[in-house]
TrEMBL record:
InterPro entries: Zn_peptidase_2 (IPR007395)
Matching Pfam families: Zn_peptidase_2
Record-annotated membrane-spanning stretches: 12-32, 145-174, 212-234
PANTHER family listed in its UniProt record: MEMBRANE PROTEASE YUGP-RELATED (PTHR36434:SF1)
Key words, A-Z: Membrane, Transmembrane, Transmembrane helix
Superkingdom of origin: Bacteria
Protein name in the entry: Zinc metallopeptidase
Organism: Ventrimonas faecis
Length: 240
């Protein structure tokens, strides 16, 4: 058994003290999500002086960088915006694609920032793209391996599961510089190209800053979960 936790070491007990790490991670994620939603809603009510839509701004930005092989297209959902390097598409949500708000322009510019990274061969983006299948595998099988190893008493399964979770955490960490760099490129370009002006640039900076917090919170929550797994299961070999 793990330090007296027994069956409850898997997190089924409200009295498991390591659950505080999970609660902290969840609170951080909720706070970041609330922050980005409130900030986006605030600036989505402010129309840009140029009257450009998110889609128009995205096309302008891409053309300014000599990128003509990337398509800008709408996707369903709220804040589902993303750049897909496999299909060379900047996908903008319904609240961004046709909106003239400075929030929409900022989000569109951020996704174009990723397209620009891809075009320039930005190393952290390539590393993140290469890490995607590994991180997906790690996030899917890590906990099942740990739970299986716990119940059948196979320490190697637990250790492999923890290492697989480490890979998923590394992906979250690698994502941070990619997202911050894309936002930095976006703010600089909308300002230098005159797509946004004056206080509008500051508003976009606030929107993208709030969005970045969601990635920071996700990374922090993953690290806290990893700490919990190590506390609960890391001493298995010593206890056996």
């Amino acid at each position: 058994m793990y330090g007296g936790y027994g069956y409850y070491g898997l997190g089924y007990s409200l009295f498991d003290p390591t659950m505080i790490l999970v609660y902290i991670g969840a609170l951080l994620s909720l706070w970041a999500s609330s922050k980005v939603n409130s900030t986006f809603q605030r600036y989505s009510r402010v129309r840009s002086m140029t009257g450009m839509t998110g889609a128009e701004a995205a096309k302008r930005l891409l053309q300014s960088q000599g990128i003509y092989d990337v398509t800008v297209q709408p996707v369903r959902g709220q804040l589902t915006d993303h750049y897909d390097p496999r299909t060379k598409t900047v996908n903008l949500s319904e609240s961004v694609y046709g909106s003239t708000s400075i929030a929409a322009v900022g989000v569109a510019a951020h996704e174009c920032g990723h397209a620009i990274q891809d075009h320039a061969g930005y190393a952290p983006l390539r590393l993140r793209s290469a890490f995607v299948p590994i991180a997906n595998l790690g996030s899917k099988i890590s906990l099942p391996l740990i739970i299986l190893g716990f119940f059948i008493g196979l320490t190697p399964f637990i250790e492999i599961g923890i290492w697989m979770f480490v890979l998923a955490v590394l992906f979250q960490i690698i994502t941070l510089p990619v997202e911050f760099n894309a936002s930095s490129r976006a703010v600089h370009l909308v300002d230098s190209l005159g797509i946004l002006q004056g206080d509008e640039v500051d508003g976009t900076r606030r929107v993208l800053g709030a969005a970045a917090l969601t990635y920071v919170a996700a990374a922090a929550a993953s690290i806290l979960q990893l700490m919990r797994l190590i506390i609960l299961f890391g001493g298995r070999r010593r206890n056996d």
